[in-house]
Design brief:
The protein is an alpha+beta fold. The protein has 7 helices and 7 strands; from the N terminus they run αβββαβαααααβββ. Helix 4 packs antiparallel against helix 6 and helix 5 runs antiparallel to helix 6.
Amino acid sequence: MYDLVQQEFIKRNELRSASKTGRGKYSGKYPFSGIIICGECGATYRRHQQYNRNKKYPTWVCEVHENQGNHKCKAKPIKEDALERAFVNSINNLVDNKEEILARLKAVICDTLTDKSDTRLAEIEEKIQAKQESIVKYLNDRQTGKITEEEYIKLSRQNMSSIDILTLEKQEIESELGKMQLADYRKEEIIKMLENGEKLNTFDETVFKNLVQEIKAISQKEIEITYNCGVIDRFLL
């Protein structure tokens, strides 16, 4: 569970924004925060309050459209309650077609800790240990006069550089394994939900956060919901 939480932190740090760096601070204040992506420019949407006849209602607006104007992005705001209804309808549609969805999900779930990756990680650990032992040997050789100070520095730097490269490769493999583990965990979560067969009557924030990876705003009247399990559902608002 700790590893899954760390992968969630990584995912949140990778969320896109309309800032100059392309990376923004993750905000989990609202269920749709950091989730809605503009289908035209790729920026995230942010929440706003709109007023109609003194009645307040929340909408979601593309950050580029809001900050840079219609000439940069023509995306129009989407009402929050329309997004909530679309999610409820999408989930209930998945439940109605659960046999087909379940077959697809179970077919793609795989063992995250593959033998190939485990073997490569073991090889890297052995190489790192061997390089570390070599550095200790060079230190002893320098102290006993078998090699000069210059030779010791050169050989040690070569081995330290190799250790850095091996460590980076190890981190990359572990990161990919973590992402696969998180993806499989989420697939299992939606499988449990579908097998249970219960439909939603109203928008459920917890269910939404657990199941949805991204919402792409195709237009003001159409969205594409991508679930963490890989299922994609396009819906009219």
